[in-house]
């Protein structure tokens, strides 16, 4: 086993929005460490709050974590410039990957989804130049309610391969995609990954994201991690929940315990 497992921090952002509270990037990193994680994927607007790379690394070391990834979009030239800055920052702090979200689908009719996805692919080709410059890969984050949601759309992107893949297993399951089949075919393109579980209703429509092992979409995390191990994946996976049951730190401690029970304590220790 050579991959490592950390935590994604959008859950803290969503929790703050729900209850009208705030979290600094320092508090999020501290709570991630208290929940038992070493690696952190930092999301939201926290990037703009970060000090110099050296200062960030000193603080992270003091709370026992490291920032391994950022989230990003490529919708505009300004977004691409922000991607460049994030890649440069990741290089300077010893980060691992940039996670890139596709455009939202909104009310797009079915025949207009693919052209928007193709535009996204073209912009990702520009991002790939920055990835090569800074030595940090970027990966598509497949997502509900976007133009890269279904198995067919994910496959279309991965066949074009403008950048790597950051599979989100919860979003894939909620969209009816077969994550294992996609992993077996495109596993060599995985540069990062989101471990996420999901609850669906009787019609298999999305209800909410939940703690690992508590969903009903048929996700087999033991098999997912086994396949990644077989393929020699050696980068970071992060646990993402989005919606909170108790508090972000408590929920993520439960997720960590679940993964440790599957035999991945070493990966959780980074």
Question: How are the secondary structure elements laid out?
Answer:
Layout: E1 4-8, H1 10-19, H2 25-34, E2 39-42, H3 53-63, E3 66-72, H4 77-93, E4 97-100, H5 110-134, E5 138-140, H6 151-160, E6 164-165, H7 169-174, H8 179-186, E7 193-195, E8 197-200, E9 206-210, H9 221-230, E10 236-239, H10 248-261, H11 265-268
Parallel strand pairs: 1-2, 1-10, 2-3, 3-4, 4-5, 5-6, 7-10
Antiparallel strand pairs: 8-9
Give a summary of the structure in a few sentences.
The protein is α/β, with parallel strands linked by helices and 270 residues long. It has helices spanning 10-19, 25-34, 53-63, 77-93, 110-134, 151-160, 169-174, 179-186, 221-230, 248-261, 265-268; strands at residues 4-8, 39-42, 66-72, 97-100, 138-140, 164-165, 193-195, 197-200, 206-210, 236-239.
Detailed description of the structure:
Strand 3, helix 4 and strand 4 (97-100) form a beta-alpha-beta unit. The protein has one domain (4-268): TIM Barrel, CATH 3.20.20.150. It contains 11 helices and 10 strands. The strands form 2 sheets. Strands 6-5-4-3-2-1-10-7 form an 8-stranded parallel β-sheet. The protein is globular, with a radius of gyration of 17 Å. The longest helix has 25 residues, at 110-134. It has helices spanning 10-19, 25-34, 53-63, 77-93, 110-134, 151-160, 169-174, 179-186, 221-230, 248-261, 265-268, and strands at residues 4-8, 39-42, 66-72, 97-100, 138-140, 164-165, 193-195, 197-200, 206-210, 236-239. Helix 4 packs across helix 5 (110-134) and helix 8 packs parallel to helix 9. By secondary structure, it is α/β, with parallel strands linked by helices.
């Amino acid at each position: 086993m050579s991959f490592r497992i950390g935590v994604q921090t959008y859950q803290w952002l969503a929790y703050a929005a729900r209850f009208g509270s705030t979290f600094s990037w320092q508090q999020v990193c501290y709570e991630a460490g208290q929940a038992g994680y070493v690696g952190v994927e930092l999301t939201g607007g926290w990037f703009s709050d970060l000090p110099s790379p050296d200062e960030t690394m000193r603080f992270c070391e003091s709370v026992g974590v490291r920032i391994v990834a950022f989230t990003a979009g490529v919708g505009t030239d300004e977004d691409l410039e922000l991607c460049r800055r994030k890649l440069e920052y990741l290089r300077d702090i010893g980060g691992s990957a940039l996670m890139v979200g596709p455009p939202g689908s909104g009310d797009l009719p079915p025949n207009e989804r693919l052209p928007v996805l193709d535009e996204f692919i073209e912009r990702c080709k520009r991002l790939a130049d920055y990835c090569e410059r800074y030595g940090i890969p970027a990966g598509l984050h497949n997502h509900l309610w976007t133009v890269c949601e279904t198995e067919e759309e994910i496959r279309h992107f991965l066949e074009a391969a403008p950048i790597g893949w950051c599979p989100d297993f919860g979003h894939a399951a909620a969209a009816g995609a077969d994550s294992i089949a996609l992993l077996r075919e495109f596993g060599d393109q995985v540069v990062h990954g989101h471990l996420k579980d999901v609850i669906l209703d009787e019609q298999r429509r999305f209800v909410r994201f939940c703690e690992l092992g508590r969903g009903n979409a048929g996700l087999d995390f033991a098999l997912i991690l086994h396949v990644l191990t077989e393929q020699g994946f050696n980068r970071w996976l992060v646990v993402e929940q989005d919606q909170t049951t108790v508090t972000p730190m408590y929920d993520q401690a439960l997720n960590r315990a679940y993964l440790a029970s599957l035999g991945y304590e070493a990966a959780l220790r980074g």
